[in-house]
């Protein structure tokens, strides 16, 4: 096996001392992980939920390690070209680190990793500015799910409500959100109150590297894209 270049000095310029030391610590940790684990994956994510991701990391802690953060720092850690990559082929991994992405180091078999990532899915409440995936409309009449104390708050969210004998009542049909349109802060709050979860936190494998091979998973991306970039 080729000698690791993990101890090669790295210059992280234009940073204050504390910030530089933190980045150098990340670089060293990633380079140590290259030595400690059998394979490396780049993954992307959508609708990140930190608590859910933390739980997923804990689940795999005994066999794996995740890194999220600055793509540039992760690229520097692995090497961004043939001349500075710390292991043969790792510059290809670096070139796929962009956007919402991270590194996953593991000793698990490839098939097990693919199964874990394909099956992982967590539903959650969507946030302001996200796109509604369906139209939600409330019909005129009583809203039994809300207590009378909620009536002033619902009115502040733009809902045409009133109290009728202590029961919150919608005086006319009300559209909470339209499919394909961004959610307002008020719409996001109402959806949460209604218990409607429109966001799905997912993880997607982009590529896999090991000393023996390199494989691209992401649809529409092939090895020639990486090698020519």
TrEMBL record:
Record field: compositional bias (Basic residues): 1-20
GO cellular component labels: cytoplasm; nucleolus; preribosome, large subunit precursor
Predominant place of localization: cytoplasm
Domain Large ribosomal subunit protein uL10-like insertion: 127-196
Keywords: Cytoplasm, Nucleus, Ribosome biogenesis
Location relative to the cell: Cytoplasm; Nucleus, Nucleolus
Gene3D superfamilies reported for this sequence: 3.30.70.1730, 3.90.105.20
Gene Ontology biological process terms in this record: nuclear-transcribed mRNA catabolic process; ribosomal large subunit assembly; rRNA processing
One of the record's GO molecular function terms: RNA binding
Entries under CDD domains matching the protein: Ribosomal_P0_like
Recorded superkingdom: Eukaryota
Renumbered residue ranges of the record's region Disordered: 1-24
Matching InterPro entries: Mrt4, Ribosomal_uL10, Ribosomal_uL10-like_insert, Ribosomal_uL10-like_insert_sf, Ribosomal_uL10-like_sf, Ribosome_Assembly_uL10
PANTHER family named among the record's database cross-references: MRNA TURNOVER PROTEIN 4 HOMOLOG, MRNA TURNOVER PROTEIN 4 MRTO4
Subunit structure: Associates with the pre-60S ribosomal particle.
Family statement: Belongs to the universal ribosomal protein uL10 family.
Its job: Component of the ribosome assembly machinery. Nuclear paralog of the ribosomal protein P0, it binds pre-60S subunits at an early stage of assembly in the nucleolus, and is replaced by P0 in cytoplasmic pre-60S subunits and mature 80S ribosomes.
Name of the protein in its database record: Ribosome assembly factor mrt4
Species: Tetracentron sinense (Spur-leaf)
């Amino acid at each position: 096996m080729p000698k690791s270049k993990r101890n090669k000095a790295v210059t992280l310029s234009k940073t204050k001392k504390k910030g530089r030391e933190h980045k150098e610590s990340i670089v060293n940790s990633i380079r140590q992980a290259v030595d400690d684990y059998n394979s490396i994956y780049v993954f992307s994510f959508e609708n990140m939920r930190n608590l859910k991701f933390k739980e997923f990391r804990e689940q795999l802690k005994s066999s794996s390690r995740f890194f999220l953060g600055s793509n540039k720092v992760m690229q520097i850690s692995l090497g961004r070209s043939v001349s500075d990559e710390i292991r043969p082929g790792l510059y290809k991994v670096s070139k796929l680190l962009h956007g919402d992405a991270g590194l996953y180091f593991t000793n698990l078999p490839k098939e097990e990793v693919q199964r874990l990532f394909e099956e992982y899915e967590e539903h959650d409440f969507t946030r302001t500015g996200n796109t509604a995936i369906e139209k939600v409309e409330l019909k005129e009449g009583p809203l039994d799910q809300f207590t009378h104390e909620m009536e002033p708050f619902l009115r502040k969210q733009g809902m045409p409500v009133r109290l009728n004998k202590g029961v919150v009542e919608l005086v006319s049909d009300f559209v909470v959100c339209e499919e394909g349109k961004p959610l307002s802060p008020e719409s996001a709050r109402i959806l949460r109150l209604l218990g409607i979860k429109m966001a799905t936190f997912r993880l997607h494998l982009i590529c896999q590297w090991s000393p023996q091979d390199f494989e691209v998973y992401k649809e529409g991306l092939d090895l020639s894209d990486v090698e020519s970039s």
